[in-house]
Design brief:
Layout lengths: L11 H6 L9 H11 L5 H15 L1 E2 L10 H7 L1 E2 L1 H14 L4 E7 L8 E9 L2 E5 L11 E6 L43
Parallel strand pairs: 1-2
Antiparallel strand pairs: 3-4, 3-6, 4-5
Helix pairs in contact: 2-5, 3-5, 4-5
Length: 190
Amino acid sequence: MAFPAPEPTMGGFDEILYTRPSRYCDSDRLAHLAGTHFAGLTGMDLVAAVTDWVHTKIGYLPGFSRGIDGALDTYLTRSGVCRDFAHLVVAFLRGRNMPARFVSVYAPGLRPMDFHAVAEVYVDGRWLLLDATGLASREAMVRICTGRDASDTAFMTTLAGRTRLTGMRVDARLEGELPEDDRLSAVQLT
């Protein structure tokens, strides 16, 4: 049985939840910087400016960041992985009072294949997908989990005892060619 995709709406609780600071998206600590970098911008102009700023100012360095690093750490070090890029985008947008959330996805075409982290922002009644890394086509991404930040979307959680990861394989494929991605275009994740 196929279930219809949820409508891209947002109620009052979601608006509060996705505009407030969270563990890794410390928008309260970045609000002043967001105001300085993106003064006077709203809507899609703000979204494009934040995405472009993170894409051009943060270096993608696999293995660089720690599991405890938040958006402010990424801003200060100017380096990170997809998780850090997404956290910084979310924190900057929240710092400008735009609802934004963290999304874990499968991303066909990502090399090497791994889980991928991106952001979504709520604009004009719909959630739009943002990937400041530019590493994968957003139109081919498949949602795994959505939350305030990586603490809500953990790939592996142990409730009791110890767990030892002995291996992992991630594979997402798309038949045909991957669509070209204009990093600043509006894309919804279905």
